[in-house]
From TrEMBL:
GO terms for molecular function: acyltransferase activity, transferring groups other than amino-acyl groups; zinc ion binding. This is MYND-type domain-containing protein. Pfam families: Acetyltransf_3, zf-MYND. Residues 19-97 are annotated as: Disordered. Residues 31-51 have a biased composition (Acidic residues). Coiled coil: none annotated. InterPro entries: Acyl_CoA_acyltransferase, GNAT_dom, N-acetyltransferase, Znf_MYND. Keywords: Metal-binding, Zinc, Zinc-finger. SUPFAM superfamilies: Acyl-CoA N-acyltransferases (Nat), HIT/MYND zinc finger-like. It comes from Kwoniella europaea PYCC6329.
């Protein structure tokens, strides 16, 4: 959904378990720049003699080893920006009348805590704020669908975070069950400065669920259905940077790459996946696409990841995607973290070498509630003002009934 600065978000940043991707991360294939073989060996060649046609043996020749430098072949990111989602059809007069009765002065408002409303009894309220448009931001890879997290993912979250194999490299150690619901799932469901995607399979039967080994019985999975893990892009801004949230009196537009560059907007990746799915390149596939999304669509000026010391699989996941080591820090849990980072220019040069940086969504009018820049420009306008626009009636209502939302900032003078 929408994004803003959330203090302390970095404290919950996830580190990838030591073999979380499990691919052992293939070393880039090397080729000789000149196209010559680097194999050494001897070769005997039979030929015709000049006098009398007798066969003779040519001397064995030894191929010289090419002194050409070898260079890794970089596979460019194959993801792409999707087509813009068209606007909804015009509503009927009856629908307009219905919504007008729900969006009036004095309508009851609800407080929405920073981490969301997750109690089952509060689901009806939560669903007001998690509109259909909020759920439409998803990423597709050859095998995966990265969708928004849901309340029903709690069991899947617990299976991973409560597993000792995973906890070995978790920054926060071994969280309790209540911690997982209060500190993690709340954040996954509704965070205002992060895109947190649940990793799911397009075709669960294509994924191999490995023998559980030492995985606790309560944490085991038997198939590749449902929540398999998560990967997130957490957005951070310098304290002096201007807010990218909608402001009173102004039609909201998606920040341009120029604005995000001036604000030094940085994304940070954190991720985890169930240990019975390690070794299939699943996290590598998700990592590459979220990195693309952050650079090519969100407009991050740089993106970083900070695996813990000794987490070789995660470190290699960074380096094979072009992130280079930046610095080491000791976090609040006294665990050294190795920061790796890639800038916008570096990513574009590596993955889009034939074209310059292109800003697909920057500057377009966007719904001021869901801020989903992939949707067509909003067609719903507040009847009391000229500047509050939404992609759907559901988003308009969510902003209207939120405590401190548009109902409190609108002048409530019906437009002519």
């Amino acid at each position: 959904m929408s994004r803003s600065k959330v203090e302390g978000a970095e404290d919950l940043v996830e580190a990838l378990a030591k073999e979380v991707d499990g691919t052992r991360i293939n070393i880039p294939f090397e080729v000789d720049v000149d196209g010559n073989s680097s194999d050494e060996g001897e070769e005997a060649v039979d030929g015709e003699g000049g006098d009398g046609g007798e066969k003779s043996k040519k001397k064995k020749k030894k191929k010289k080893k090419s002194k050409s430098k070898k260079t890794p072949v970089i596979k460019p990111n194959q993801g792409r920006i999707p087509e813009e989602i068209p606007p909804p059809p015009p509503e009927s007069p009856e629908a307009t009348s219905k919504w007008d009765k729900e969006i009036v002065k004095g309508t009851k408002t609800y407080n929405l805590p920073a981490w969301g409303l997750l109690d089952d009894r509060a689901r009806p309220i939560l669903n007001i704020f998690r509109t259909p448009s909020c759920k439409k931001i998803e990423l597709i890879t050859p095998r995966l669908r990265l969708r928004q997290c849901e309340v029903g993912d709690l069991t899947g979250v617990r299976r991973i975070k409560m597993e000792p194999i995973v906890q070995k490299t978790q920054l926060y150690g071994s969280p309790s069950i209540s911690d997982i619901k209060d500190s993690f799932l709340n954040r996954y469901i509704r965070s205002r400065d992060e895109y947190i995607f649940a990793i799911t399979a397009l075709n669960p039967s294509q994924l191999k669920v490995q023998d559980p080994g030492h995985v606790r019985i309560s944490n085991r999975i038997s198939n590749g259905e449902g929540y398999l893990g998560n990967i997130a892009l957490s957005l951070t801004y310098p304290s002096a940077s201007p807010s990218f949230l909608p402001t009173k009196g102004k039609i909201y537009t998606q920040p341009t790459f120029e604005r995000t560059h001036n604000a030094k907007l940085e994304g940070k990746l954190f991720y985890e996946i169930h240990p019975q799915l390690w070794g299939q390149g699943i996290m590598s596939e998700a990592f590459e696409e979220v990195l693309r999304f952050g650079m090519e669509e969100v407009g991050c000026d740089s993106i970083a990841s900070d695996p813990t010391t000794g987490n070789e699989a995660s470190i290699h996941l960074c380096t094979k995607n072009g992130l280079t080591f930046s610095h080491t820090t000791n976090n609040m849990y006294n665990k050294p973290q190795l920061f790796h980072r890639i800038t916008k220019e570096e990513w574009w040069k590596r993955n889009r070498p034939d074209k310059g940086v292109e800003d697909r969504w920057g500057g377009k009018e966007v719904c001021r509630w869901c801020m989903n820049f992939r949707l067509a420009p909003p067609t719903i306008q507040c009847k009391y003002c000229q500047w509050a626009k939404y992609c759907s009636r559901e988003c308009q209502k969510a902003d209207w009934v939120r405590n401190g939302g548009h109902q409190s900032e609108c002048d409530l003078e019906e437009a002519p």
